[in-house]
Every structure is written in C-alpha cells, then in structure tokens.
C-alpha cells in the first residue's frame, strides 16, 4: 500500500511540473478528468473503453505527448479510432488542484508554436494566423481532398485555450446551441462541415452573422451575445454552395491543393518523425512506398503503425492494403 501511495505522489508531482511547463495542457487534463468521472467503468476494468480525443476536445498530438510522459494510457487503436484513459484520475486531479495558473479566459493567445508539426502549406498557415489575430471575428473554411492536413490544422486551433471541436457529420442544431451556450468558445472548429445537415446550420449562420445564439426552451428564450471565430474543413464546398450559399459567403475560403509526389514524401516523412518517433530513413522509406498508391497522410500513418516501424514489414502491409 505504501508503495502505491508513493507512486501516486510521484505521478502527481510529475503531472504538476509538466503543467507548469505546458499551461495549455490544463484544459485538456481537466476535460479528461471530467469525462472519466462522468463515465465510470461499468463491469470489469479491463473492458473499460475510455475516451477519444474528440470526446475530451484534445488534439491527438497532445494526447501522444501525455502518453509518452506516462500520464495517459492507450486502450485501443485501429485505423479509424483510438481510445485512452488517464493513468490515475486522482493524481491528475490533485496536480490540477495544486496549480496556480490563470484561467482560460485570462490566458493570452499564444500561436507561436501553432502548426509546428505541420510541414508545408505556409500560405494556409499564414491565413489562419491572420484570422486568429484579427481585430474582430474572421471565419475560415479549409477546402481540399482527404489527407492534405486540414484536420491537423483544425485540431491545433481546437486545442487553443477557448477552443471547441465539433464534427459536422454528427452535429445537430440542439447539440450545437447547447455547446455554444455552455462553453462560449472563442474558437469553434467544425470538421466535415459539408456533411452537416442543412437544418442544423441555422444557429451557426446566426452566430457568424450577428454573434447571437438563441435557444427556446420550456417557454423561455435564451439569447446570448458572443465573439466566436469559426474554423471549418470540407472535402468539397460544392455541397455547401448548393445548399447554403449564405453560410458559404460568411467564410474566407482557402483551397488546399493535393500534394505532389515530392511534397508528400517530404511532408509524410516529417510527420512520421515528429509525431510517431520514427527514424528519418524509415519514415522516408514508408512515405516513398505509400505515395505510389496514395497521397493521403493518414495512409502513411496507417502503414507506419501496422508495420511497427519495421522496414521489412512495409511491403507486406502495403500489399494487404492495395493488393500490389
């Protein structure tokens, strides 16, 4: 028992000092503690499914850093989803309670390291930086094919203090209004906005036009004025243009072209080295083989994960994926 207590105290101390070094992680860990307390394990502990990065509104890059430090455990990982849990809820809570860090509303906007893990797309990153620093709300829509780092850039914005992530494919009018009224986000990030149901875009359009969010509930009308910048992503804006030209007109549209072969090898290699700790030669080998079949960064990551960084397995994995 004494050994367990000592380990918990060591973990708490490590989390505390990590938070002093990375104040932006406070919101992320607060979200995970809240989620785990609201969703306790049901049944055997080894069947606990944990949470995804979207459920706790935390960028995967931050979760990967927390895993590397031993603060978070990976429970499940597949091509389409990953689930995690805190190493210790109590140690994390105690570390958070020990902090003397200004609240989110008081944190200055620090975007110096934003998009640091994203190679290329300098024009797009500069536009997003201008929008984040603008005197008033400017809304940006990133449009491009899958695998050109749209989601990575949106994840970075969503991880900022005051940021909230929402998936367009699962967004509902009631859910969006509830999120806006409860969280009052400074930065609302919506991925796959082209998959958002037309009826659910009404409160979003009102927010972007007037800064006003309205909810009628139990005969009472809640009206809240807020300053929120909207950043969204879509594979194709033609669907938005056809269904809601008014919504599209509220965005500064930034088209992201697909990678050329050389760009993909360069970018994918950097991503695999920075985010997945592969050696430069192995990363370039994987990128050079994947680009023969795909320029989607997710495919390079999948091959890296399934081959476990072993160059001898890369060809076997690719053969299974593309039948080469």
Written overview of the protein:
The protein is α/β, with parallel strands linked by helices and 324 residues long. It has 3 domains: 2-97, Arc Repressor Mutant, subunit A (Orthogonal Bundle); 106-255, 3-Layer(aba) Sandwich (Rossmann fold), CATH 3.40.50.300; 261-322. It has helices at residues 2-21, 25-38, 60-68, 89-97, 122-133, 150-158, 173-183, 202-210, 238-243, 245-249, 261-276, 280-290, 297-307, 311-322, and strands at 72-77, 82-86, 140-143, 163-167, 187-191, 212-217, 220-225, 229-234, 252-255. Strands 4-5-8-3-9 form a 5-stranded parallel β-sheet, covered by helices on one side. Strands 1-2 form a two-stranded antiparallel sheet. Helix 12 (280-290) packs across helix 13 (297-307) and helix 12 packs parallel to helix 14 (311-322). The longest helix is centred in the first third of the chain and has 20 residues, at 2-21. The relative contact order is 0.10. Residues 101-108 have low confidence and may be disordered.
